[in-house]
Request: fold
Amino acid sequence: MYKVFMGENPGDTTGDIFDRLGLDKASMMAFSDGIFAIAITLLVLELRIPDIPSHDIDTVFLPTLVDIFPKILGFILSFFIIANFWLSYRRMFSFIPTLDRVLVRLHIVFLFFIVLMPFPTYLLGIYGNHLSVVVFYALILTMSSLLLFFLWKYASKNHRLIEPDLSEHVIEYMSVRNLITPVTFLVSIPIALVNPLLAMVSWSSMLVTFPLVKTRYKKKFAGTQDT
Amino acid sequence: MYKVFMGENPGDTTGDIFDRLGLDKASMMAFSDGIFAIAITLLVLELRIPDIPSHDIDTVFLPTLVDIFPKILGFILSFFIIANFWLSYRRMFSFIPTLDRVLVRLHIVFLFFIVLMPFPTYLLGIYGNHLSVVVFYALILTMSSLLLFFLWKYASKNHRLIEPDLSEHVIEYMSVRNLITPVTFLVSIPIALVNPLLAMVSWSSMLVTFPLVKTRYKKKFAGTQDT
Amino acid sequence: MYKVFMGENPGDTTGDIFDRLGLDKASMMAFSDGIFAIAITLLVLELRIPDIPSHDIDTVFLPTLVDIFPKILGFILSFFIIANFWLSYRRMFSFIPTLDRVLVRLHIVFLFFIVLMPFPTYLLGIYGNHLSVVVFYALILTMSSLLLFFLWKYASKNHRLIEPDLSEHVIEYMSVRNLITPVTFLVSIPIALVNPLLAMVSWSSMLVTFPLVKTRYKKKFAGTQDT
Amino acid sequence: MYKVFMGENPGDTTGDIFDRLGLDKASMMAFSDGIFAIAITLLVLELRIPDIPSHDIDTVFLPTLVDIFPKILGFILSFFIIANFWLSYRRMFSFIPTLDRVLVRLHIVFLFFIVLMPFPTYLLGIYGNHLSVVVFYALILTMSSLLLFFLWKYASKNHRLIEPDLSEHVIEYMSVRNLITPVTFLVSIPIALVNPLLAMVSWSSMLVTFPLVKTRYKKKFAGTQDT
Reply:
């Protein structure tokens, strides 16, 4: 057999040198972590107040903070959404020990939507609870969270890239978990047609649905432990 | 017993797969370090001078630097405050070998205030020693440093996440140390009501209180070594 | 013989202490990854819409997105180009286990063009398919991809920095692969003289040429396996 | 003896828990690398052209690039200066296996000047070769490079933090090397008083002095090998 140089990367398990990724999981994740960290920190650049004469600042400071409240809210919202994406992403990849070419490409598309995040945040910050920007924000969030869902579907299909003995319950739980965010944002779009503010409030339902789904699956899991 | 895949993450010690973090301490800290590094570097973007015709620059350069002195001071102040937060944060986590779900959440909230830092810095840079912006700056700093204090309280309570044999003296010392910053900024708020400049000067008291507390605890520690 | 301190860096294999790099491959790549991650994330800062009165936003939101379509297209284009540069760069260095002084210098110049990327992207975003900005964009891309090509040429020449037993087929394949991008962008410059939009369309030819070259080399490689 | 928890950090060799850094060399350098990478990438945000009507862009594109030539030159200059600082910094620390409290503090001050770099670059980009901005740029560069020199002096004094058997020649070579940059920028300040452009040209002398110093020390080193 022809000698094939396999490189020092542990994640590089392909036998075909022309299909090699030359990319291990740790490097892919370090790159992603960097992008997450930068995107989440750039959000603060949107926090600006209008020009105010210096001698007036003490009088108008609080009203000004109230005026830019949509910006502050958008900042807080996007910060915690990106932070939770990062946690979900990390949790998911703790089940995926290897990469392949398709997963890397899906990954890049997922990162595209993370990098994009400051744009809908900036729109939401300026135009607050108007239909068009709320729908746009919800659409971008639907897309990014759907990509996380697809990443999991691709990796877990027939145990393609996950551990062979990972239980079907966990696979199903992760799938359902990864559907909560896209479904919540998608459902909020028709709600926004009625009332954009209500749509934004509906996003907070995730504070309830995530623990609910976990509790449900813990019970289901407990039941199968006996068999 | 049902087979549970535990992942490659060393910090993942939970037995319950539905509660798993999928996040080790090293990754959490690398992510935080990235956010610290970005937030501290973005501060420089505030350093701008007003438009000056090119042929006048040599005449007005020094007066212009004096004009933007609050910006320069705000930049220096926030740079060294964030750098010291980073050092305190690193020191604290050198005592905490593991993570749990609550610590990660507190961590994310702490990072929120680090990411926010360029905003009060920008306000301080424009409006200098006015009551409202000084109080706002002090409030944000109180919040971020309190979170570091709560992180330690949570981790050290009943040796929850710290080494079982870490001495009570060290735990107490770290608690007191982590109270210096929030107390200093909180106390500066009533001072700002009298004189905002005095409040800013009062922050420098930390250059004395930190070494004082250390000396005091070194003595206390030395006394107990004999028992 | 004089005692020479070799340092802890594994990539530091020089025997002459005055020529030492003090830089291992992992650190060089981590630094580059950081620059890639920041440059790719900064692109989003160009996505801005003109000032629109708040009450008009729902009416003009879609037409505004259409108006800034060159910005959006430039953002998407540069995001995926930088991401693919990163993948190519990672793949290439998976074949290069060590660094030397020249490779580090070439590396720095390559990073210069990565850091520069947001500038032609910003121009393309504002002026869309005008001859001058399309040619400028193509020139910068030609330069950055040529540097990746030169990096490979330098490292692979006489197996200078690559594994001694890496096959000539792989070396040739990597050379040809690394020529696709510069040739595509260079050829698009005369096309832009005829029609700038056509030049931009011509860049998409890489979606075909990359798989074609791979298939061709896979066949060539398969043929030599018997000898 | 009282039990002292030493933490997992390899760089943490202090016996006194109250003086512990909780910071290993690798983390300090990763943090610094992040700051270097961000500061060097932020430079591109200064590359902007004035507003030009879209239909005029092809006619005025080249003249516009010429107009912003100081910005482009400032970008190139600062990029390669920061990149070389990074290489010098890495080379220096490859000789320093451990940290102490003072070195960390000097390090933080050094990072302050790296973070500051985009500010003088922005001034140089707008006002080109005017006395005040050239002197300001030279002063900041003198400060940052002097800090690198002091870092080395502190670490190498009586072999405080370097390997005990590192030769005096290498120590001296590194000291002299680290003086080239501050001396070059300091000497350029009186030159700027005569002619600011000449001062900027004088900076390029480093392209000659660095290799000269290396050659000189290589000879000196070769002479002592026999003794």
